[in-house]
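Agenda item 2: zinc ion complex prediction
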Amino acid sequence: MNKKMTAKVIRTIVVQAVLIIITITVVGGAVITHQKYKNTPDPDSTTSSQDSQSSSEVTDTQSTSSSSMSQQSSEPDDTTSSTQPPVDSDKYPYAYAGFMPEITDVNVDLSKFIVNGKYSLPKNYKPTLAEAVKGTDVMLDYRVAPYYQAMYDAAKADGITLTPVSGYRSYERQTNNFENRIAQNMKAGLDRKEATIKAATVIMVPGSSEHNAGLAMDICSLSESFENSKEFEWLSKNAANYGFILRYPKDAKSREITGVVYEPWHYRFVGIDTAKDIKAKGVTLEEYLGLA
Ligand SMILES: [Zn+2]
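Presented output:
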């Protein structure tokens, strides 16, 4: 009898212990999953999908985006919607998925020009363009291109080739890529809202990429191993002298602030004085501008 009681108590303890372990595992897993998504998207991962899709670019983007408009207006928002002004669906085409960035001021000095997940370009923004390196078809804002050319020439004199891989991308092209990815996700069974949120972890929402502004260049490679190259070493030493900064640094604090993964290849023009200052302070552009 006594033995039986003891066995019962032990069994209860074991069962409870197992339950606690299961709880810890599940909750811990959820936290890890959440953190994993914190530093997406990688705005440059668009380049590969862009290239692979460019041949089939693409059938019904028009109809997809127009259906997004109609879906948006009929999307039953949460309860707070009645107290908020109606969403301008032309200004915020992805508001239904929670993307309602501020529209950035494009009439500021390039040192203060901010484009990120919180500050988006006006719809269909198109800068005046110029060849980043003469004879290539990679373009930048015409105010930035001469600085890239100067940096390119200086590196060349040191035996380094700063191949311009990806500069300006049109708002329209970004929208096509984004819409294609949404369509893919919907084919896989997600509804449009879910499909949009998932697409945004891989491709920047149109207007929130510095490439849409023509202010950034992806140089040489879109691989993290670029940080071990002599080209990267040269850039680390000299880019600021030509007005460019490493926009998405490696350390965790910077990644948290920019919301973007480490991109050793992505250089943003801010002007020479500002670039030198940012480099000396070791901060992100967001911190420098007081927007972090
Ligand atoms: Zn880039």
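Discussion summary: The first strand starts at residue 102 and ends at 103.
Owner for follow-up: CH.
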